[in-house]
Amino acid sequence: MFIEEILKYNSIAIVGLAKNAGKTECLNYILRKVKNTGKRFALTSIGIDGENRDQVCQTPKPEIEIFEDMIFITSEMHYRSKRLVAEIMDVSTQQTSLGRLVTARAVSSGKALLSGPADTGSLKALIQGMKRFDVDTTIVDGALSRLSLSSPAVTEAMVLATGAAVSCNIPQLVRKTKYVYDLICLETAEPEMIRQLIDIEQGIWSIDENGKVHDLNIPSVFMLENNKDEVFKYGNTLYVAGAISDKLLQFLRQQKQIKEITLIIRDFTKMFASMETYYAFLKKGGTMKVLQKSKLLAVCINPQSPEGYCLDSDELRIAMQESLGIPVYDVKRIENQLIQ
Amino acid sequence: MIDKLEIQSGLAKRVLNTLPYLRTAEAIAQELDKTEVMRNILQTSELTDTITKIKVKLMQVKDIRGTANRVTELQILDDIELFELKAFSLLVVEMRELLLSANITVVTLPDLEPVVNILDPEKMRIPHFYVYDAYSPELAALRTKMKTLQMDEKTEERVLDQLQFEHTELEDRIREKLSEQIHPYKKEINEALVNTATLDILLAKAQQTIDMQLCKPEISTSTTRYIKIFNPQVKEVLWQEGKKFQAIDIDIKQGACLITGANMAGKSVILKTVALAQTLFQFGFYVPAEQAEIALVDEVLLCIGDEQSELSGLSSYASEMLRVNAIVQDVKAGKNALILIDELARTTNPTEGKAIVNAMLDFLTDKGARSLITSHYSGIKARCKKMRVKGFVKEHVQGQLTINNINEFIDYSLIEDTLDSVPQEAMRIARILGVDEELLDKAEEFLDDEEKKNRN
After folding, report:
1. Is the Cβ pair A91, B150 closer than 8 Å?
2. Cα separation of A331 and A26, whole Å?
């Protein structure tokens, strides 16, 4: 199982491909599995999460169950409504929309609503700060379409939750998941290149044959149109620090020397281009690499859609497994089988 | 300067902004003496370790004045407030011990040990808090029961919910009791907050006197006198460029004093620096000079002429005149103020401007108001003391003068002036600044015309 894997990392993000993709169930499953491992866990979220009722669809959402001795970080407002005994260890000076953040240790097991810092920078600082409470692994519960927190710059590894909420059509659900999986698996650039590029956080850059980095002085990919002739003056390897759009990939795809073009991006969370554009870019012979690669620990599926439609668990799991080539888990089913 | 104070806690930073303007010699002397004591402590090497430890504690202090108010009002505190109170009280107890062991008495902290004891029934002495089992056997029993039932798969959700409700009720009662027990210590808690902030501010003030080489001013009853006063900000900028700030001596007596001097001779800097020093003094801070005797004033009235007036629809002349009028009214009302006006009436024609300067100087001398006024106008005849910035040192001027080394050729010191003409070096300075030759040559021609006309 992937549980042993989780113990190896300082920080894990649980991210859902869509709202109600089964992220919370996946998290609860992991928490139940890790509670007796003798390691200390901290639990937080990005933004508001753990509502009793889904804020978007008003469907009931499973609560987060926190076990004895786990540390959790949540806002003042959610702390006051917790249903467990907990010892406060710290109160942040930083304010969120729901008050300051409270760090507490669960004295008894029980349920609570999780909320956390509103931006990835604060989240990263928070994860680092957990060392002083002897935390081995911090688990971050993701929010709606917030893949960004699973960026390798924030958390070391991730668990991906996907399910009927993404699509009720198995082949389509598998395709959509496979796309994200492919992005997560993008290869990293050469170490020397990573070293040179890692601190560059904006702009479009070109790397020549000798490995020298040149600023193309194009502030954003949206300005590409006006600087077309400039782009390849140093060579065919480009580094784009910001978001990757459909337009950029389409532009590259149309180049004569597309087979020689390598596009380096920071990490998979910077990809905002559609699945179709990405695969078309690859098909034409383009190459894409990342500076930082995410470590994907597992893919969890939830065959239940928020509208009540339920896909066949086995069929979905097998199809997904075949496409991705890695083990896929239906955590709810595993749990139910154990009870029986 | 205030921004450069190395204050550790957010609490003290907020308190700092509410410090009062001191109006009595006793209050100022007391503040200055305290700063001196702390300065001596900081310079005692055996105490370095203690001071470092105190600074680390101060860094952890949070502004819990809101919680302290709720204690005072006997409101029921929640877990987060009780946690804050416990963390703060523990810090105060630790800092108090450090102060006592080092015999530092310039600031004392009240004993919050009883508050710590109320909030630390398990005697762990760590700043964590929850409604501990130790507060009530009933609570402990209920928690054990809940835990057992939770483990049992057969327990109905309804039963657990009922117990959870009882648990919340019980915790609330305990919090109410704790709040009542803490209430009697309201005075100590509030005092601890005030004194912690005072300690933090005093440490920062004392450190700054050492870092910036500030001096303890004497309190004067007549003349305000600065020996080698300097502007810390300008000094810092010059220092970074590898240049030296020339400190100057200045006396400010009752009555008006006119300061003249060429452009770039540092007249505005003098006014700003004097304003800064007087203000620091009134708040009980050391001042940037080698020696200082300062007379108390009720207010520092500064007119530097850089107010943003376009937005309010006034010309720069109009807004300056309104400001000057306010100053005149204050003086008429008998306010003991330090008045600093930079280039009075500079934005209007020289004939009338000069008249306004004369009138103002006359008025201020009559009223005996401590004031410094700078001007470029020649022919000021009003009764007042006259000072002049020495300006260009002739013997130096053979070298290549540029905008970068100009300050080496200026002697910024102030001398008594008996002449009523002022140095006319505007053209020369414009040339040094690299202003277009054609323009300046033309200007010289016009200057000649004017002078010719004057001669006729």
Report:
1. no
2. 6
Start and end residues for every CATH 3.40.50.300 domain found in chain B: 218-424
Answer for the pair B262, B293: CB distance below 8 angstroms, yes or no.
Answer: no
Q: How many CB atoms lie within 10 A of CB A111?
A: 17
How far does the CA of residue B127 sit from the closest CA of chain A (Å)?
7
Nearest to A88 among B10, B129, B147 (CB): B129
Residues of chain B positioned with their CB less than 8 A from the CB of A93: 10, 62
pTM: 0.80
| Cα A281 to Cα A289: distance, rounded to the nearest angstrom | 13
- Per-residue pLDDT band for B451 (boundaries 50, 70, 90) equals low
Measured over the CA atoms of residue B122, residue B124, residue B125 and residue B128, the dihedral's sign is negative
Place of tokens 């939750």: A161
Question: Which CATH class name applies to B218-424?
Answer: alpha beta
Domains identified in chain A and CATH numbers: 3-184+295-339 (3.40.50.300), 191-290 (3.40.140)
Neighbours of B157 (CB within 10 A): 7
Find the angle CA(B404)-CA(B409)-CA(B414) to the nearest 5 degrees: 120
Closest chain A residue to B132, measured at CA:
A87
Q: Which residues pair with A71 in a beta bridge?
A: A42, A105
Lowest mean pLDDT among B71-85, B211-225, B247-261, B388-402: B388-402
Measured CA to CA in angstroms, residue A175 lies from A145, A276, A289, B57, B215 at distances of: 17, 11, 21, 56, 75
Burial of B264 (C-beta count, 10 Å sphere; 0-12/13-18/19+) = buried
What are the tokens at B178? 């704790």
Q: What is the mean pLDDT of residues B21-39?
A: 94
**Side chain identity at residue B184, one-letter code:** P
Residue-wise pLDDT tens digits, B277-322 = 999 999 999 999 999 999 999 999 988 866 655 566 777 788 888 8
Instruction: Decide if B62 and A108 are in contact by the 8 Å CB cutoff.
Output: no
Q: Please give the radius of gyration of chain A, using alpha carbons only, rounded to the nearest integer.
A: 21
Cα gap B126→B376, rounded to integer Å: 67
Record: contact B79-A79, CB cut-off 8 A = yes
Asked whether the beta carbons of residue A79 and residue B10 sit closer than 8 angstroms, the reply is no
Residues of B with CB under 8 A from a CB of A: 10, 62, 78-80, 83-84, 127-131, 143, 146-147, 150, 164, 167
Chain A environment of B129 (Cβ under 8 Å): 87-88
Task: Tell me the chain B residues in contact with residue A104 when contact means C-beta distances shorter than 8 Å.
Answer: 130
Helix axes A313-324, A170-184, angle to 10 degrees: 40
Output the CA angle A303-A309-A310, nearest 5 degrees.
35
User: Which residues of A lie inside 8 Å of B (Cβ-Cβ)?
Assistant: 76, 79-80, 83, 85-89, 91, 93, 100, 102, 104-105, 107-109
Residue whose structure tokens are 């559609």: A274
Chain A: give the shortest CA distance to residue B185, in Å: 23
Query: Measured between alpha carbons, how far is residue B386 from residues B261, B294, B382, B422, B423 in Å?
Result: 11, 20, 10, 11, 14
In a mutational test of the B interface, the residue from A78, A83, A85, A134 whose CB has the highest number of chain B CBs within 10 Å is A85
- Alpha-carbon distance of B216 to B209, in angstroms, equals 9
Is the pLDDT at A144 greater than 50? The verdict is: no
A-B contacts (CB, under 8 Å): 40
Q: Give the mean model confidence (pLDDT) for residues A83-110.
A: 90
Q: Minimal Cα–Cα distance from A70 to chain B, Å?
A: 15
Cβ atoms of A166 and A17 within 8 Å: the answer is yes
